[in-house]
Design goal:
This protein has 317 residues and is of the alpha/beta class. The protein contains 10 helices and 14 strands. The radius of gyration is 20 Å and the shape is globular. 42% of the residues are buried.
Length: 317
Amino acid sequence: MEKKTVIFALSASNGLANEIAAHLGIPLGLCEVKHFADGEIMVELGESVRGKHVYIVQSTCAPVSSNLMEVLIAIDACKRASAEHVAVVMPYYGYARQDRKAKPRQPITSKLVASLLEKAGADRVITMELHATQIQGFFDVPADDISAIHIIGRYFKELNLPDVVVVSPDHGGTTRARKLAEMLHAPLAIIDKRRPKPNVAEAMNLIGDVNGKTAIMVDDIVDTAGTLTAGIQMLYDKGAVAVYASCVHGVLSGPAIDRLKAAKLSGFICTNTIAQDEKAAQYPEMTVLSVAEVLGGVIKAIEESKSISETLVDYTW
């Protein structure tokens, strides 16, 4: 792999890319990202990629559009430098929540992002826990949506918590929550909520029993933590003795950290699909789990022409 494979890190995911490279036993590729005074971006490769398989690691978290442009420019640089194959490792796929026309005259921006990546020259996209699995169908190149729920499940299984119930914060996350519930051999509960406008959620009702139990809420994304705030309070009102919250993508924008601190959580768990160094300093009680080993395993499977699904079995339990 060392002679044929190159992994480049862009601005948003340098730490994760270093972990992935270390797991694979190869050095991180030399790459410099420059932001000029007028906002333009330059990505310069510091080594030859001619005939090589390139993996560009970058989550399109805040600043979303700037990070997305870095990816597009990096792809173009690799293609113009005669890379044989360019794959984008995008653990957090920005704009994933704009996956349909919820109202007339709205864009489907997640499809636009897929088109931009393909047009720039991406031969493959690897992402984690897409907000909507149908986004895979927006691509005409291979798109791998890797689940991170087993990483969270392993963490909670090691805690050996008593009387656990897994809670989905809405109907849309039921499949994800059921997967975690099966891993923990625990019952499932669902919060029935409505969202009157973006980033505003109102908890309405609870389907299931949490009385006297340890509740584990699981979601794909925690943004402003409004959903958690409403849901956690409902769980305590319904008799839960302890509440843990977990997610794959800790966006944690705006008042999220303050809300989490005030939420009386027994623990908050997320992964490093989005770098959490700054947020962890503000909220040291947060537990951050690494996805590097899993993504490294996926890259290794691709490079060795092995089944990704069979490879992922090695990382579940």
